[in-house]
Amino acid sequence: MTTLDPVTFSVLWGGLLSAASEMGVTLSRTAYSAAVREGLDYSTALFDADGLMIAQGDYSPGHLGSMAFTVRKVLEIYPRETMKPGDAILLNDSGIGSGHLPDFFMISPIHFDNALIGFAVNCAHHVDVGGSGAGSQVIQGIQDNYQEGIRFLPTRCYAGGEPIADIFRVIAANVRQPEKVIGDLRAQVNANTTGARRMVELALVHGLAALQGAMAEILARSEVQMRAAISRIPAGVYSFEDCLDDVGPGTEPVVAKVTVTVADGTITVDWAGSGPQREAGLNSYLHYTYAYTIAAVKSVTLPTAPQNDGVIRTIQIKAPEGSFFNPRRPAACGGRATISHRIYEVVLGALAQAVPDRVMAANSHFFNPNLGGVDPRTGKQFVCYELIIGGIGGRPGKDGEEALASPWNAANIPIEIQESSNPILVERFGFIADSGGPGRQRGGCGLRKDMRVLADRVDFYNLGDRALFAPYGLFDGLPGTKAATLLDPGAKGQRRLHSKGSYRLKRDQVISWRTAGAGGYGDPLERPVALVERDVKSGFVTIPRARTDYGVVINPKTLAVDGTRTDALRLKRRKARSKPRQRETARA
Questions:
Q1: Residue range 345-363, pLDDT digits in tens
Q2: pTM over 0.90
Q3: Rounded Cα distance, 130 and 153, in Å
Q4: What is the tens place of the pLDDT at every residue in 496-545?
Q5: Do both 433 and 552 map to the same domain?
Q6: Angstrom distance (rounded) from CA 61 to CA 10
Q7: Domain count, the chain
Q8: Is there a single domain that holds both residue 498 and residue 557?
Q9: Distances, alpha carbon 413 to alpha carbons 199, 338, 343, 385, 430, in Å
Q10: Residue 238, strand partner residues
Q11: What sign does the CA torsion over 219, 222, 226, 228 have?
């Protein structure tokens, strides 16, 4: 610990956090693509001169958790003394970065009085990086990472503040929408320039020694606080298992099994027992497994505290080499975004046994499909990057929320943006009644989005999950409904599409995505009848399901609760449910 006075220390810590957040604002406001500008698929952070993360913006755990390890890997290739003011290093290698090629990292050194004092770092998801299909997230028919797009190991792309033109020419020649990709890369440089400027300002105002002392103290204090938080979790070994549906049409489920050990102020998370790596565009490289494992652990220990290297170093993560959660290169991984929820929820399921009052049931999951082809309005290639985000799981004392991203911070892309940028028409967008898992705290409802394509020969690459394994409920809460993707819903030729399939569409065909519903928390018969009545009036729960799921009788004309009949029905349900439990107790 340093001898900084508390006020100066607070100002410096707040200044670093503010700078990291401002980097994100700069990136989103100068970006070209809907993925970054509207979907918020990016992250920003500041590091010290040793490559340790000090402050991050409130963005994606998948980027930020990976980023903590990425910078140190970059320093093995570009030692500190080789980095000059105005340089920028880019990379998108799946094993070094955040697990798939569309995520480009940008690392910029920060100098003060000719001395390296830190790094400004960001990551942004690019709408296309080449490969076999539009959006570069194809799962079906992909055998290895070489099919998925252009790949950069750490490479200097700016020198002395000027772009290295050859690098950008190579990128532009290998992607379907070069204007958007190059524009977003420039926005990433803008973001790092903002972060560097703010860190230098802190050094100018408070002195370099104070800034460096504050950064060291931030890490030390964060580690102390994190270990103290871990020590309040009951020591023990906790296991949980769930499955991803599959890795494409005609394939088997992926077992996701975790064992969490809590002891001596440290949490060890071991993915042994999970399935092997698969020959499809869906594997989780170790940094990505790290990222969402860290996010789950932090959410039950220090959920409101800033994340940095001091927090991360208290969490040990293991995954057998060659497993789905630590594959060997060149394992394909383009669709790895769909794994994020399962990593987070399996770890949370294990920790629910230790801290039931700090967890939530499984989320709705989401769809992250890509469509591509030629826009008849312009004659140019288009790539429609879509996010369809359902609700989050029920929590102790709170229902799940609808259409809210968790565990990552993204957003449903506005309809107006999609329709103006792509040859599509959104015909329906709304919640799915009765989809949220029943519970004392109801799970968030799923989301339905129907999109008509207005071009011929459109390639559609679906990306979703939870069509076979429903989001789990906790502590007698029930699962949510399963997800589905339908082609031409309601028409004579309606058919069900695979959540990870690849398809060719004709003009005027309609895709209907229905996300799963989130899991419920607690016994549905303990849900206050006033909340069930509110859910019915809001359209989240129908009258028949209020009766069957919650034991609440609603008058169909007035939409008011029939208290007498509800009390009688709930009493009957509790008696019927208690009988088998009594027999089990007697046998025990």
A1: 999 999 999 999 999 999 9
A2: yes
A3: 16
A4: 999 999 999 999 999 999 999 999 999 999 999 999 999 999 999 999 99
A5: no
A6: 24
A7: 3
A8: no
A9: 32, 17, 24, 9, 13
A10: 260
A11: positive
